Amino acid sequence: LDALCATSLQHFRLFQQPVRPDYPEGQAPYQRRVRFLLEAIAHPDALVTNLYFLQTRDAEQLEAILSKEFVKACWEVHELLFKITEPRVIITCHDVTEEVFCGKFVLGSKPVEIEAKHGNWKCRRLQGQWKSREICVVKIPHLSIYDITQPRCRTVLEWVKKIVRECTDGWEMQAPAGV
After folding, report:
1. 155 near 114, Cβ under 8 Å?
2. At residue 97, does pLDDT exceed 80?
3. Predicted confidence band at 149 (pLDDT cuts at 50, 70, 90)?
4. In degrees rounded to 5, what are phi and psi of residue 91?
5. Strand, helix or coil for residue 58
6. In the chain, how long is the greatest CA-to-CA distance?
7. Which residues 6+ apart lie within 8 Å of 145 measured at CB?
8. CA nearest to 128, candidates 98, 158, 96
9. pLDDT band for position 176 (cuts 50, 70, 90)
10. What is the pTM of this model?
């Protein structure tokens, strides 16, 4: 564990410089959208993490610096997190992340999809198992470019909330007013 965390933290430290220093702390669009999604879901056991422990400006930069060793180290940290938290729903925001999950989880072959109302993108729900546990993986567009706070995205937000409720034994969400 120490070596694994050290490897991941070393990678994290390399990339912890602000990507967009023109935003006040916590106010970058991605951060605001993640907060909005979590407030809308309003589940007390939500865990937020990136599959890769680094910041990049775009998907091209991310893919250019990924190595198998780096992905493996980040995944091992997530396996520890999943052992502790035992998630029933994982919301992912990137095709690469979905590919990694599909390779690690036993997911059904027929995803349920809805339009993301963002170009030609689709949101996807895959049901499956991980370590003999039922798990649901939900893919939405990456929140750095997908503004889930906008009214046109309300359908996606409601869809995600419904999945969380279904997969967490009917958790009654207590969303703040206006969300």
Report:
1. yes
2. no
3. very high
4. -100, 125
5. coil
6. 45
7. 118
8. 98
9. very low
10. 0.73
Instruction: Decide: 163 and 89 in contact? Cβ < 8 Å.
Output: yes
β-sheet bridge partners, residue 127: 136
Residue 38 to residue 179: CA distance in whole angstroms:
10
Pair of tokens at residue 116: 């993301």
Q: Which CB contacts under 8 angstroms, 24+ apart, belong to 48-55?
A: 49/78, 49/81, 51/75, 51/78, 51/92, 51/94, 51/96, 51/97, 51/100, 53/8, 53/9, 53/11, 53/12, 53/15, 53/77, 54/11, 54/12, 54/14, 54/15, 55/15, 55/16, 55/17, 55/18, 55/19
pLDDT in tens, 56-87: 666 666 666 667 777 777 788 888 888 888 88
Q: What is the DSSP string of 101-141?
A: HHHHSEE-SS-EEEE-SSTT-EEEEEEEEETTEEEEEEE--
